[in-house]
Write a structure and sequence with these properties.
Blueprint: E1 11-17, H1 21-42, E2 67-70, E3 76-81, E4 89-95, H2 109-116, H3 127-136, E5 145-149, E6 154-160, H4 165-180, H5 186-203, H6 206-218, H7 233-238, H8 241-251, E7 257-263, H9 267-278, E8 304-309, E9 318-324
Parallel strand pairs: 1-8, 3-7
Antiparallel strand pairs: 1-9, 2-3, 4-6, 4-7, 5-6
Helix pairs in contact: 1-6, 4-9
Amino acid sequence: MRAQNFTTDTLVTVALLRQPPRLMMKSSRSVLAAFFLLFALALPGLSLAAVPFAQAESDLKPDPGARYGTLPNGVRYVVRPNQEPKDRASLRFVVEAGALEETEDQRGLAHFLEHMAFNGSTHYPDGDELIKYFQRLGMNFGGDTNASTSFDRTQYLLELPDTKPATVAEGLRVFSDFAGSLLLKQPAIDKERGIILSEKRTRDSVDYRTEIASYNFAFDGSLLPKRFPIGETEVIQQSQRDRFVDFYDTWYRPELISLVVVGDIDAAAVEQQIIGTFTPLKARAPARPKPDLGQLNLSATEGTSVFYHYESEAPGTSIAIGTVMPY
């Protein structure tokens, strides 16, 4: 879709949802966030791989305490010293690819792959070995280390218990394995299917079903409603290793990867660690164009469009009025 298609009319939507007001508020925020995501991704000529740091196109000066850099292979990083809390550091590893990058037979694999990152890589061939490493450091799996997948990105986090050079180096090595050295063994994939399906069943709630219905209404004609990160049951149940490898090698590529390290650190030293760890990273497959996000159905722009969604389990009714304007 292209943002300039919204040139003259304003789309007014009325939503009648039988569900608690607080649930509607959460759903509305999610839809609004997705709306801006869709238009950000849809700007003509925009490629996430080519987006520079924000300050490169702004008159606002960046924080002088932060060190920004881009490696020759395209990996971007930000290192920021912060002395509180003392002797702690937060690491983030972001891949600018998520559910929107999936093909039709990969629906759910971006999220599934996020799980597989903890199930075997070059330096941690057994997923249990990685968990035991975290535990030896006193890290809580799920609290100090976690991950999430959204429409347009996948993010991994580590909260390190100390900032010794060896600890930081190990954290960066974990991320380096995530970036280019996942094993994706078929037995591990088969073992993880039940966990993903259980997560999918857990999400099946009034709020979630309403959110899906809202997306289908607000973004009719676009790819967004067809790419909820949890995916499709059939894909989760049947996908073999080759589908995972295709997504992993195509989208976990240097120019789509960013690193952030913030903590009680020597920024110059950590920067050198990042350079040494991630400079060897190379793309493992040809680049693939970003997906066509579709074309929003604008047939209702001349007047009021009404959306009604009924949930028998919801204890209340909410009414909302929203306006879509040119971006």
